[in-house]
């Protein structure tokens, strides 16, 4: 089956999931319920595309399909920012009540953290990929322990308010922030369109890419910034979903056999839309909101992550 046909199949399934989520059991107040459902669907689409785009390009420059920006500790930095705000300023501070300030502070801190981390770890490919994975997980664990320490000291009422921000949710998405996220995603797509061919060349490796005229180190830094901005935007919009990028990117690699990044990004984006919209439908109508989508994704993603590690280990052996 051709890749174009496979993409059409994914697109049809995604559209069916969106329509099913939007119209299922919408009794009575259509004018009230439908716009709110579509707002959540829009947030899922933006989040899914941003995570898919950032993960695919990130794995290209790291030459490894296990590493993702989230696995490297970026989601943990989001939790640190929110916890520090609640710990020092409180839930009634302008940093919490003003959605633009909170959104901007989270993105700025996460991008800054990513640039510092990437600058030291990825420069000139001086570290093996499993060392990077180990460092990323250690950093993520360290930040998580720091967050837990602050949460023990925080006021219980503030802690309950903080918890709603530390798990991914599509129920409280602000339309104004969604428009900002769409604008960031649009700019990223414009830039990505012009570098797509270079990404295909960079997948050949550093030496081959440089021999073909690519400014490899400069492109790596620009792509890292792009990936960091996208993952920071999606996390600041709905909250952290740690293993989601790992799942959709690797499913795209297995389903679509090609070297072209444009096809993999589209495929991963469609898979992410299906997973998010379909998963949210199950959470709301099957599990009746007794759990959250991020918990399900992280559970499945953790198992899939272990499977990929064992698969890579067997391949190396």
From TrEMBL:
Keywords: Cell membrane, Membrane, Transmembrane, Transmembrane helix, Transport. It is a multi-pass membrane protein. Its main location: membrane. It comes from the Bacteria. Signal peptide: none annotated. Gene3D superfamilies: ABC transporter involved in vitamin B12 uptake, BtuC. InterPro entries: ABC_BtuC-like, ABC_transptr_permease_BtuC. The chain crosses the membrane at residues 7-26, 38-58, 103-122, 129-154, 174-194, 237-256, 263-283, 289-310. The keyword Lipid metabolism does not apply. It is found in: Cell membrane. Pfam families: FecCD (PF01032). Belongs to the binding-protein-dependent transport system permease family. FecCD subfamily. PANTHER family: FERRIC ENTEROBACTIN TRANSPORT SYSTEM PERMEASE PROTEIN, PETROBACTIN IMPORT SYSTEM PERMEASE PROTEIN YCLO. This is Iron complex transport system permease protein. It comes from Metabacillus malikii.
